[in-house]
Design a protein that fits this description.
The protein is 17% helix and 37% strand. The chain is an alpha+beta fold. The strands form 6 sheets. Strands 10-9-13-14-15-12-11-24 form an 8-stranded antiparallel sheet. It is globular and about 65 Å long.
Length: 507
């Protein structure tokens, strides 16, 4: 769990940095619960309601109301983001889930955001600025790792790049960050109560196990059932540190091999790497089903629509079993020590994880995380601060995993038709012979992807496929006008395209 005071870089220790406040108006715009959503969950999944009551310390009525408000936020969010246009800088639900907040860099769009049903919050920094800064820290972690820093993420509510620092190590962390060239005004610090650790268990108790290496067996949890985009049998997604490329994976207690790891992020020698794997079934008589375990009956998975910070998510791990919590933060780069994992044996920065307010244990890695009430796949468990005294856990976002592994999560029943992707904002800014471009889109069947064409000499990108958001950063083209063209392509091959030019000139 992150504790301590938010301190801007350069501020004296202990100086609190006040967060932005909503644009004044006629009072807060509250979400009206979507009728029947929470009540249906209470009828069809009473154990889920009980888990939320237990883990989030809510009454039954509060859980039902909150589910209705989350559904309302799914409708309000896209409208509010369109209303903010290129001035959109992130969104989040209030802690009690009663209102949707939209960060905006220009107060002139505040009335349109309020009319859309959300609360505008004025901020100074564009989301693209913060994401570009996050990319610089990720690059430095791959070259100059530092024990003082546990991770970092963009916090839209504070409009800062928040660095998670080991107790007593802020000076060392600040020096490490300063060496990246990230402006001081973009950075704030949280004291990390405990480092995260991978939740692989080498002592027993999990339903899937990898090969024995040096007398150790990786014991983990199966994630979501999936179908590959390439020829071959179906299988399931799990954590990459549980199932490395070529490993034969067994269901615990079944002597024959259940599957073979066809694709995995490990082993590799990269200092920055995702943590994901796809295991294909070996026996044609075996099959995977589009459901995940709960503490009652299996829960069918109906899609991969991501939730927003503040919404409730639930998990299943075969040590911790079933539990729920709130999604706290998305896009967190976490430094994980895989020193005791054979064939990895080092610290790796795992990028773009989501963190939630629940605890998981060694042995839960790879387990599924789903949205509460709507049964949408969210991701697979990777790590937790809980064994070291914290109260947060991290999971790999499922839409990014689908793209990386070239697989699709199996859905239960017939999914409702999804409109084709529509680009809502594509804006480019130039500075010092460099540029940032910010791309937002809506709809499209998951997993969607983005193709980029440009005459720039050097382009980097930050992908947030859960948030339908991509940032491009690059250098202006020499001797000619710089152009950037983008196409958003969904899983059904439908696309929307946009282009920009004349936004920067060569020096």
């Amino acid at each position: 769990m992150l504790v301590g005071t938010l301190v801007a870089m350069g501020a004296p220790p202990g100086a609190a940095a006040a967060g932005p406040s909503p644009v004044s108006g006629a009072g807060p715009v509250l979400l009206v619960p979507a009728p029947g959503v929470g009540e249906k969950a209470a009828r069809t999944a009473p154990k889920l309601i009980e888990a939320a009551q237990r883990d989030l310390r809510l009454t039954r009525a509060q859980v039902i109301t909150r589910l209705g408000r989350q559904e309302a936020a799914h409708a309000v969010g896209p409208r509010a983001r369109r209303a903010a246009g290129r001035h959109y800088a992130g969104s989040w639900l209030t802690e009690d889930g009663s209102a949707l907040m939209i960060a905006v860099t220009d107060g002139r769009v505040a009335s349109a955001v309020r009319a859309a049903g959300a609360n505008p919050v004025p901020v100074a920094h564009r989301l693209g600025e913060l994401e570009t800064a996050r990319l610089k820290l990720r690059d430095r972690a791959g070259k100059v790792p530092v024990a003082a820093v546990h991770g970092w993420h963009v916090d839209p509510a504070r409009n800062r790049l928040v660095v998670q620092v080991a107790p007593g190590e802020q000076r060392a962390a600040a020096a490490w960050v300063a060496a990246t060239g990230v402006p001081a005004a973009l950075v704030a610090y949280d004291r990390a109560a405990a480092p995260q650790r991978a939740t692989t268990d080498r002592l027993g108790g999990d339903p899937i196990e990898g090969p024995s290496i040096n007398g150790k067996i990786a014991l983990c949890t199966e994630g979501f059932s999936a179908r590959p985009f390439f020829p071959g049998p179906d299988g399931f997604i799990t954590a990459g540190h549980c199932a490395q490329a070529g490993d034969r994976i067994n269901l615990l207690g079944i002597p024959r091999s259940t599957g073979t790891t066809f694709r995995s992020s490990f082993p590799n020698n990269d200092a920055v790497s995702p943590d994901e794997a796809f295991v294909q079934l070996n026996n044609p008589l075996d099959r995977v089903v589009p459901s995940v375990r709960s503490d009652r009956a299996p829960v069918p998975v109906f899609g991969t629509q991501p939730v927003s910070p503040g919404e409730m998510v639930c998990f299943y791990g075969n040590v911790s079993k079933f539990g729920c919590g709130r999604l706290l933060t998305t896009g967190v780069d976490v430094r994980l020590n895989f020193g005791d994992v054979p064939r990895i044996g080092r610290v790796v920065t795992v990028p773009s994880l989501n963190q939630a307010s629940f605890c998981v244990a060694p042995g839960d890695s790879g387990g599924p995380v789903t949205s509460m009430g709507t049964a949408q796949a969210q991701g697979t468990l990777i790590s937790s601060a809980c064994p070291n005294g914290g109260s947060t856990s991290s999971y790999m976002p499922i839409n990014q995993t689908e793209l990386d592994l070239q697989v699709e999560v199996l859905r239960a029943g017939i999914s409702p038709p999804v409109p084709p992707p529509v680009i809502t904002t594509f804006t480019c800014y130039s500075f010092d012979n460099r540029f940032d471009c910010e791309l937002y889109w809506e709809d499209g069947s998951d997993p969607d992807s983005v193709q980029v064409s440009t005459n720039s000499r050097y382009v980097r990108r930050v992908n947030d496929y859960d948030g339908n958001f991509v940032v491009l950063t690059g250098t202006c083209a020499p001797f000619s006008d710089t152009f950037v063209s983008v196409s958003v392509i969904d899983a059904d091959g439908r696309r929307d395209s946009a282009s920009r030019n004349s936004f920067c000139s060569p020096e």
